[in-house]
Amino acid sequence: MLHEVVSVRVPPKGHTRRAAATARPSSSQDIAYYLRVFRDELKRDPTTVECFDLAQGNSEHSRHWFFGGKVVIDEEEMPLTLFQWVKRPLKERISNSVIGFHDNSSALRGYSHTNFMPSGSVAQPGAFQEVARDYDITLTVETHNFPCGIAPFPGAETGAGGRIRDGESTGKGSLVVAAVAGYATGNLHIPGYKMPWEFEDFKYPSNMASGALVCSYDEGGAIQPQAFGAVDAGGEHLYAVQATKALWQVWDWNSKRSSYRASLPEKITAMVFSPDSSLCFAGAQTGSIYCWLSSTGALLRYWPAHFREVTQLLVSPDGGYLVSASKDSAVHVYNLADVFEDTSGAPKPFHSWSGHSLAVTALALLGGSSALHQVVASGSLDRTVRLWDVGSGRPLQSRSLSAQVNALCAGAAASELVVAGHHGELRSLETKDFGREGGVYLGHSCNVLSCAMSSDGASLASCSEVERVRVWETRTRQCVAQLHGQRDVKISAVKILRRMPHLPSLPPFQPFQRLLCEELPERVLRGVSGREAQLKERMAPYARAEGMLEHVHWASGVLASKASEGTDLGDELLRAKENETRWAKVANQLYRIVTEHGFTWLETQEQQVLIDCSNGASDYGNKFGEPLICGWTRSCGMRMPSGERFEWVKPIMLSGGLGQMDHGHLVKEEPQAGQLVVKIGGPAYRIGVGGGAASSMVAGDNQEELDFNAVQRGDAEMQQKVNRVVRACVELGPKNPILSIHDQGAGGSGNVLKEISEPAGAVIDLRKMHVGDPSMSFLEIARMRGMCAEERGANAEELWTAEFQENNALLLGKESEALFDQICKREKVPYAVVGTITGDGKVVVKDSRDNSCPVDLPLDKVLGKMPQKVFKMQRIYKQLPKALDLPASLTVQVALETGVLRLLSVCSKRFLTNKVDRSVTGQIAQQQCVGPLQTPLADFACIAQSPLSTSGGATAIGEQPLKGLAGDPESCVSMARLAVAEALTNLAWIRIPTLDSIKASGNWMWAAKLPGEGPKMYDIAEAGGALIG
After folding, report:
1. CB–CB of 46/1017 below 8 Å?
2. Which of 590, 727, 867, 1014 is least enclosed by beta carbons within 10 angstroms?
3. Where are the alpha helices (DSSP H) in 703-766?
4. Residue 19: in which H helix or E strand, if any?
5. pLDDT tens digits for 242-259?
6. How far is Cα 280 from Cα 293, in angstroms, rounded to an integer?
7. DSSP H/E element including 879
8. 3-state secondary structure (DSSP) of residue 183
9. Long-range contacts: 483-489, Cβ < 8 Å, 24+?
10. Which CB contacts under 8 angstroms, 24+ apart, belong to 486-492?
């Protein structure tokens, strides 16, 4: 795809004419080079941190080895590298280019104009005044596919945020004005909207994001947050109790209409089923607890457990005891054997805990080897979380927090407890060391109402009052997806359920009785006297798939409902054995929902990726205050005549930005000894670890967990604060304190701090960095005392290479530190002076507390000119494309109705334009909706340099990816030429000084290292460079 940018004169308002303007990416060559450097020159072994640093900093993502490498096609060495071809037009006709191929953005010579600037001190408010400025037009464009495929919403935030930092880090700082975006995905498979080329048998990688809305159930009113979930362990039946009425409903997974709906004795505030689904427990607003037999609806027990509302109920995994919490600040534990064996009066709890001073709002069970070895966690409005031992009844530990507790959850391993609370609080506590924080989940900005953890502890889901549902990876505490339901629907609770297809239906529910039954059925007594344990023991020899015993909970539920019919337990066991293969298959499908069993996906994988990608980019821009004014979108996936599959399985997300910069700030200053190395922006988190390497690999070559680790997160509010600091410095004109600025991206601090100190070198103190997640830092005193050198190195590796977003590095003179401090305090932006320029040519990373040195590298060896790589490839296209031959029966009307107008690249783009700001800043002369009906999309976008000027910049996009599908040189050349032609014709209505003032930015998102793909890319680069030059 090609992006044209031009500096233009914009007609003033009223003018009759409209403004027509951690993987191992290193190759054997890299390893041999560094082996020689360390063995022969440095004469020492590299540290773990240095190895990880070099892998990220020298990845394809960071160093562009392929573009700078020697290309050999069919044993013939090509005359120029890819870089030489794309740089050729600039070299031969520099014209009005002032920055090209040597900074974070390109820039064209702009115009002198009048703008509004603050007149007061940087630390004090003051009036604006008209000031003459000489600004150049900047353009930066980058493409992402790896992060958007793994986690679309945060992945698109990564693209938008990273591109904004590229723009503001040009020269000595530049101004961000407007954005462009583009999206390319695979087949959408929209229900009822099938395209003839969409193949149903196409498979997608397991680590690609889904987040698909499978089904929604809507039959009246809000639900009680602690009274909904799955009836059975297989997730086939969902239940919910209404919040405003004494009603409850049950849905079969395959049906949107409730299969059961009935009244309850009173308003219920908490409900839970026993593990075998045979018993239902409910807590009432009055403090009473009810217990029904699911198969008959018989009310088995009822007793006044609390004197205020029951807030939550839990049943132990073995069905042995019931835990209740209440607004009366008490937690009770009931032995179910006692509850059913003695019916003469209200059962007494065998433990009653009253350590909280306010209402208990949340419960969680921390598993043990048996029921009596388990621990109950309780959270309260008194801002404390307490742990209680079930066996002894003793209080174990207590932890005070900064916010009221709304929910608790823990995984099966019970190694961490997650706490959800007010004011966006979502944090984990380590259960073995309860006084120590496991980490913070950042992203929610308002009260977090609910949280739930997957059974293996790998994923966490949470919901808040505004931001709907977020899904997190617990190991990195990084948001990997945002799930959105219907508009104007408040999500008050979230659960993670195991969906097991092929399970037999539960017996139909009978109306829940309001009167106690006179005598307890024998099957209930059998159920609480160890029948389930016996069943597990007898089924154990048949369990071959991991997790099968958990499914037996459901099977025992079926037994409990059939016991009165005389069904023999042994017969049921034999039947289970006969179905062993089926059970094994189900057990291995814990996290993926199959769609071939009678229900329809409302949103497919690629469809959801497109929606979440565009949501992420739009959301980030809206929060930051950057309008999105130009773009494109395309969907394609097909089977080629050769049998090869062509599809954007990893979606392409393009993010570009138009901006401007002071002409006096074009050139970064060279680092000099004594200058300060500063980092500004958000604190460090364990996110984006290994992103440079992971995004440089062929899809599927990396481990899934490493893919997820590499996706960053977005914080548009912090980015806006950083941008205001950069803007304030830029507006100071010749008094700008910034000497040089670089954005933090792939490789994290390790990469950006080496870049900004090259070639002079610097000494960096890791203790000076702001750390938001103490668990990732080896600098914490408590951990340092008991940590071996290898462990310290591993944590330093995370801190030094994590690509946490919204962070820049810059150079300041010592005399400018006070001024910069004033600006940062005014904008409430954290910054840290992490080091100084030394002038010895080395980057040295130290810990000032113990004087350890995890990194000590000569910059000329790691960033200097390294040996050129050679890439050998072959052309393997099967045949030349045939001439276009349209069938005689194909009329224009049929072509439009069945194909052209249904293409994503042609149809309405309101699903993209209606959710994003298109005019903020007051500098937008032409955005993407045009005409009297504001129809998307315009051919170009145009910005003014200021609200007072009639000059500005314009950009247009040309993309023709399908023209070269055949793969032969002629088709690839046609693709390049048509992309250039499309971009130029889209600019036809722009008034420009000369044709030479138009400059092109080419972006390739190509799997060039796959067999046969490299020559295609070379042909396109050669054709594009020759045409533009």
Report:
1. no
2. 867
3. 704-710, 716-730, 748-757
4. none
5. 888 888 888 877 676 777
6. 6
7. none
8. strand
9. 483/211, 483/213, 484/615, 485/213, 485/216, 486/216
10. 486/216, 490/222, 490/465, 491/449, 491/463, 492/222, 492/223, 492/225, 492/449, 492/450, 492/463
Positions of E strands within 682-804 = 738-743, 762-765
Which segments of 755-901 are extended strands (E)? 762-765, 807-812, 831-837, 842-846, 855-858, 870-873
Q: Nearest-CA neighbor of 257 among 249, 266, 267? A: 249
Instruction: Locate the DSSP E strands across 74-153.
Output: 76-77, 97-99, 106-118, 128-144
Peptide bond into 912 cis (omega under 30): no
Q: Are the CB atoms for 659 and 177 separated by under 8 Å?
A: yes
Contact between 717 and 697 (Cβ < 8 Å): no
Q: Which residues pair with 280 in a beta bridge?
A: 273, 292
In the block, which residue shows the tokens 């097991």?
500
Which strands, in side-by-side order, build the sheet including 2-9? Answer: 924-926, 941-944, 951-958, 2-9, 999-1002
DSSP-based three-state secondary structure for 461: strand
Distance (Å, whole) CA 81 – CA 61: 17
The crossing angle, in degrees rounded to 10, of helices 48-57 and 789-801 is: 20
The helix/strand count (H/E) of the chain reads as 26, 49
Reduced to 3 states, what is the DSSP secondary structure of residue 390? coil
To the nearest 5 percent, what fractions of the chain are helix, strand and coil?
30, 30, 45
3-state DSSP call for residue 384? strand
Q: How confident is the model at residue 96 (pLDDT cuts 50, 70, 90)?
A: confident
What single DSSP character describes residue 774?
A: G
Q: What is the pLDDT of residues 68-82, one digit of tens each?
A: 889 999 999 999 998
How many CB atoms lie under 10 A from the CB of residue 124?
Answer: 9
Whole-angstrom Cα distance, residue 912 to residue 5?
Answer: 23
Which tokens sit at 483? 């799930």
Which of 38-42, 63-67, 787-791, 1009-1013 is predicted least confidently?
A: 787-791
CB atoms within 10 A of CB 538: 14
Secondary structure (DSSP) of 478-519: EEEEEE--STT------------TTPPPPPPP-PPPSSB-SS
